[in-house]
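Re: your question from the hallway

Yes, I did run it. Sequences:
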Amino acid sequence: MNPDLLNALAIFLLAILVGFEVISKVPATLHTPLMSGANSIHGIVMVGAMLIAAAADNPFSYVLAFIAMVFGAANVVGGYVVTDRMLQMFRRREPAKAAPAVEAASVPAGTPGTGTGAAGAAEGK
Amino acid sequence: MSDAWIYTLVFFSWLAGAAAFVLGLHQMNSPATARRGNQLSAAGMALAVIVTFLWLLTPGNAIHAGGMSLTAIAIIVVGFVLGGGIGLYMARKVAMTAMPQLVSLFNAVGGGAAALVAIDDFVRIAGQPELTVSTSIFVVLGAAIGSVTFSGSLIASGKLQGLIPGQPIIFPGSRLVTALTALIVAVGLVVLVLASAGAVVLTSDVQLLVLGLVVLSALTFGITLVLPIGGADMPVVISLLNSFTGTAAAMAGFVIGNPVLIIAGALVGASGAILTKLMADAMNRSIANIMVGGFGTGDAAAGSATGAGASGGTIREVSLDDAAIQLAYAQKVIIVPGYGLAVAQAQHACRELGDLLEARGVEVSYAIHPVAGRMPGHMNVLLAEANVPYPQLKEMEEINPEFDRTDVALVVGANDVTNPAARSNPQSPIYGMPILDVDHARSIIVMKRSMRPGYAGIDNELYANPKTGMLFADAKDGLTQLVAAVKEL
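Structure:
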């Protein structure tokens, strides 16, 4: 096997071990945001989609690359925004009862959540 | 700058992106830092994506001499705007109760993208000397795993959304189809490996045909894999498919030789596997048992499933006013929210009741079973959305000792996770499943629409407990009425 592949396999193994280590400490409270956050991370295939789009030289490849790009972008942008929306809801008690509970109590669903970090990714280009 | 230098910088930014993913996930350990963690991870992603794009524009990049063609630029930009726009819209609009199916949908497209990257690379190099044995292994794995997650996650999402019936769907020969498609994938892998090793001579067209068969079989496999699995097991399935997508992304990374895909994919693959294991443990079932499916079809009802009162004792109903008085004059109340609360969208009414009781000096906490809701930790998200402060949300191990000194346990729309049979009756199908020790409280109020058994299809002997009062109501209406009744006291 060529050395590049061997290096890649070593990286792969170490990253798996890091994944085990990092996740096993997360409390059950955060499992949904965590799964959603991990879900956005595999949107990194979008980088792969960009690379195959650049390398493509026939219509079929272009079509595949385009679909991959759409899928990957939806995964990345949607994933980060929705995770951010979930996480911004996790608060300790509000400073005082005076703080009106309008934002969540009266709006049952679809509270507008602007994900600053994720929006950053969305504005990437 | 020379091309080699530019590539080094690009490589470093990929590594920085990968590091941001690891640190971001690490910060998700605590609710206080979780949001920052996710933003760090998003920043890492933005860096990796932007730098890759700029690099591809440079004439000396290693992917396409002279820089990208205009077509490629258009594909990337239009694809990003289109996909990103759809993702952004859905992420902003989704209700928190519908979160599991959206996560599953994003997982599907991620898996699909990974499969397409692997397939596209194969289309370019099939039949050429560039196609090594290792590349063809990774192509087949990436394409197959990505396709399985694509179709499987779509089915899971459809089941959660109610587009496909949630109960296990088993048609004659479905197991055979599953086995057969798995076999085709395996044979396809062997054929393509032999071809790339030169042991068999196949034209590039035949090789593409074989890969096409592999992809079709994998798509079918994903469908027949998820269809027989019941709705309440979906959390485990989504988690497992998430892990698969990570693995598929890593395989795609091997195919195109990109380190950030390998690291990020492996990270997600491993973390998804751990989460799946945690979930399955919380239900006291093996992952294999869940994947075989069919649970909750009724054949599991080794206990009696004949409905009310079958477990021997008598059922005592409690009136709304009695319940309100019990709650209002208690010192310590634990609310146990379950799937029924999520379905009725009663999380806001639930929080209102909790606040009202707290204002009267009652100590209120929420006992969250690990599998409450429709994905791991889903109940926490729903209650957080209703502004319940997270320190009040208690996990099972933390809250169980507290039931002994609790005056009233209010169970809203939860069933199997409170069934004492899991502790005491070795004959019960849920025996051994960790449960919330609700029956240890001095008094128990169960809010439930009817005496219908829960997902496991068995009676809950908690309801026949002399300490238990049943309050038959829809979770949302019942809680709203309770709030009104407590206010009047």
